[in-house]
Amino acid sequence: MEWLNLSVRWVHMITGVAWIGASFYFVWLENNLNRINPRDGLAGDLWAIHGGGIYHLEKYKLAPPTMPDNLHWFKWEAYSTWMSGVALMGVVFYANPTLYLLAPGSSLSGVEGIAIGIGSLIAGWFIYDVLCDSPLGKRPALLGLILFVLLIGAAFGFSKVFSGRGAYLHVGAIIGTIMVGNVFRIIMPAQRALVAAIADGRTPDPSLPAKGLLRSRHNNYFTLPVLFIMISNHFPSTYGSQYNWLILAGIAVLAVLVRHYFNTRHNSHAFAWTLPVAALGMICLAYVTGPAQMSTDAASAARASGVDFNKVHSVIQERCAVCHSAKPTSPLFSTAPAGVMLDTPQQIQQLAPRIQAQAVISQIMPLGNITQMTQQERDLIGAWIDKGAQTH
Predict the structure, then answer these.
(1) Binning pLDDT at 50, 70 and 90, where does residue 279 land?
(2) Rounded mean pLDDT of 365-376?
(3) 3-state DSSP helix/strand/coil percent for the chain, to nearest 5?
(4) What is the pLDDT of residues 167-198, one digit of tens each?
(5) What angle do CA 255, 88, 83 make, to 5 degrees?
(6) Which has more confidence, 295 or 139?
(7) Of 9, 160, 254, 361, which residue is the least packed, with the fewest Cβ within 10 Å?
(8) Cβ neighbours of residue 30 under 8 Å, at least 6 residues apart?
(9) Is the distance from CB of 147 to CB of 128 less than 8 angstroms?
(10) Is 59 left (phi over 0), alpha (psi -120 to 50) or beta?
């Protein structure tokens, strides 16, 4: 399973880089065309140098008089990214939903959790598609705000039934499904209709390219939030927080602001303020998600227990080392996840900050709380770390 996870994740990353790279390049290309006195039939052109060669690119207002024999289409990057992403969801979350997908103590069954996950992807696309085809499609700013509210609402709902990682990744999967749906259902058909009209000598329907442009613009602004979600599983301070949906909302806003600057800077730097604002916003998020102080009652109880390392060691061996050991006793792992081993006092002391982040603050470990670690045990470990994580 680990090698299957690695293989599918690697394919997902490779195809995602290809899709996002092409998207970013064509946005840059469009924004940097020289539109001053273009040649007849052209919207603009651009000269560029890369890899030791000089390139001259031209964009037609609509299309050339005759279609070229070899016209390159950009679609399989999107399709492959989505298909590998769905496969990765299956490997990571749906193969063992009670462990990875559902929140600890959830009353849902694994099948119910999977049904919610898959159903949300289908519902997300149809709700988005209906909104875009409604009169809101002519008011892009309002449409964008409504889409943002709906996606954060989905994040909030997921956080009530899924693990933090599961909630984040399903929001990302909804966005990814919308993005690939835009390519498959709107952008590609519009491009095929344009090519067919030119080949037949007909005047193309201008509404189809306009519709494709709106969806393409959405895909562009979705990109950075999706990239954050793809790497978020490495940062428990985000998805592991009790306010993880608000953190996701904050980061999404900052990402969209930054993307907007890069989309508009060819005309002016009027949105240059978004860069320092985004940096300040990240600092604020780091501050508000910092370790919370232990409650007075919990601290008193921990002090009363003496914060004896032997007790801490016993808890970690019982609750954590079944997986995080040189020889895991859990049937789920043949080697310690992420190479983290908690067999000896020295290993536990060295990894105390990670234990605090994962088991005390965010409480995302043990996975699905399969070893039934209690709040008193988490408070005990937290008090031991707060007092210096001494082993003697």
Answers:
(1) very high
(2) 84
(3) 65, 5, 30
(4) 999 999 999 999 999 999 999 998 898 888 88
(5) 85
(6) 139
(7) 160
(8) 59
(9) yes
(10) beta
CA quadruple 304, 310, 316, 317: dihedral sign: negative
Which DSSP symbol is given to 162?
B
Q: Give the residue ranges of DSSP H helices in 265-308.
A: 274-288, 296-304
Average pLDDT for residues 18-30, to the nearest whole number?
Answer: 90
Cβ partners under 8 Å of residue 322, min gap 6 = 328, 329, 330, 371
Report whether 56 contacts 47 (CB < 8 A).
yes
What amino acid is encoded at 158 in this protein? F
Residue 55 — φ and ψ, nearest 5°? Answer: -115, 145
The residues facing 42 across adjacent strands are: 60
By the 8 A CB rule, do 77 and 86 touch? Answer: no
pLDDT of residue 303: 53
Determine the pLDDT at residue 134. Answer: 94
What's the number of CA atoms in the CB half-sphere (13 Å) around residue 40?
Answer: 1
Q: CA 145, CA 166: separation in Å to the nearest integer?
A: 24
SS3 54: strand
CA distance 192 to 196: 6
Q: What is the rounded CA–CA span in Å between residue 344 and residue 357?
A: 19
DSSP codes, 120-171? HHHHHHHHHHHHHHSGGGG-HHHHHHHHHHHHHHHHHHHHHHB-HHHHHHHH
Residue 137 DSSP code? G
Backbone angles phi, psi at 204, to 5 degrees: -65, 150
Q: Is the dihedral of CA 224, 183, 154, 240 positive or negative?
A: negative
